[in-house]
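Late entry, evening session. Most of the bench is empty. Finally got around to the prediction I had been postponing all week. Sequence below, unchanged from the version circulated by S.P.
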Amino acid sequence: MEKKDTLLSIGQFAALHGINKKTLMWYDETGLFRPAAIHPENGYRYYSYHQSSILETILLLRELGVSIGEIQSFMQNRSAASLERLLHEKIDELDRTLAHLRSVRKTLANHRQNMLTLLHMDLAEIRLVEKEERRLVTVDINQDTPFEKQVEMITAETKKYQLRRLHDASYGTMIAVEKLHGGNFTAYSKLFIEIPFPIKEAGLHVQPGGSYLRAFYQGPWDDQPQRYQEILGFAQKQGWKLAGYAYETILNEPVIDRMEDAIIQIEIPAEPS
């Protein structure tokens, strides 16, 4: 308790709180936080220990991005209610920021995984992989939907879910396996978007977890049906039954200038027949 009556120089008080003494000078000049005493002859500022809790509150609010004006308003009307209200607003802002950063991290991890796949892939390989369940936003399309329209539809959906830009989400196309078995290899019925944060809405498409046949294709658009025929033949030979949808994703879109150079990853749910 004796220390409360001890006055510290501006340098000592700044060092105690891990800040620059110019910060304390600025706070004094703006009227936000004044020293406990000023030497009448030399004008030196002095602070007391009991001011520490007030300064730490100001430093906390500044770290949360609260403006000087907002803090001044709070300091003039300090109360439990006003501090609770201010902290509640800043916690909400932090939660939104953290949610966005988690989304960005997931998107970056997906892109990085795609790049690793590109570096180690065998375009001719067809193999079995395990995937976790995903919930996807889908948009209905048909064979007559122009590519330009598809881009517009995808962009609209990303805005609907408050994503900042198109590449904040993973997206691709879907074609029903029954269409593939019927020899209709271009009957795309949906665009899909994987939103990089949990959403709870009715009507989302559930991409099941489990075993998938994964293959890749690069080449002229007209030759892609041949790749699907190879996948169907491989599945039959290996005793795998394909069901649901084939999910197509372009892996190298960020690093190509022409769609002709696209490497398409094809994944189809598979189970022993």
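Two things to note before I forget:
The mean pLDDT is 88.
The longest helix spans residues 80-120.
Will write this up properly tomorrow.
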